[in-house]
Design a protein that fits this description.
This protein is of the alpha/beta class. Helices cover about 50% and strands about 15% of the residues. The chain contains six helices and five strands; from the N terminus they run αβαβαβαβαβα.
């Protein structure tokens, strides 16, 4: 049944074709799984294990949306959010996907410009819906 729902949803998501998503996730399995899942929906995904090259990759890849883990090995996701808000990339929507489940973590992320916040383990179909909604807001 779930497969049928996903196939039906994929048919509805034709507008995702080629949309660029930057995924920053340090956990190898999570990164590969989310990247593969998004590729199945037609997204062009660039996946990073750390945030040190965040701004270089934004410049080169020019993502239309960013999926960001907050706990990274080299730099804190909050720091990346804060720097992004002060830079030239303020209009790129950020969706946080994090294991941090406390309200204070969510509020801090929203205060720093995150548009949505998903707590791990993330419901992938809800995440795709959130991505599509954010991208549709950007097109208007």
């Amino acid at each position: 049944m779930m497969t049928a729902q996903l196939v039906n949803y994929k048919e509805q998501c034709k507008s995702t074709e080629g949309k660029r998503i930057l995924l920053i996730e340090d956990h190898d399995v999570n990164r590969m799984f989310m990247s593969d899942y998004l590729h199945c929906y037609g997204y062009n995904v660039k996946a990073l294990a750390e945030g040190s090259d965040f701004f270089i990759i934004i410049e080169q890849f020019q993502p239309e949306l960013i999926l960001l883990d907050l706990k990274l090995p080299d730099v804190d996701g909050y720091t990346l959010l804060e720097k992004k808000q002060r830079g030239d990339y303020i209009d790129i929507p950020v969706i946080v996907v994090s294991a941090f489940a406390f309200r204070a973590d969510k509020e801090r992320a929203f205060d720093l410009g995150a548009r949505r916040y998903f707590t791990k383990p993330v419901n992938l179909s809800e995440m795709v819906l959130g991505i599509e909604e954010e991208l549709s807001y950007c097109r208007k």
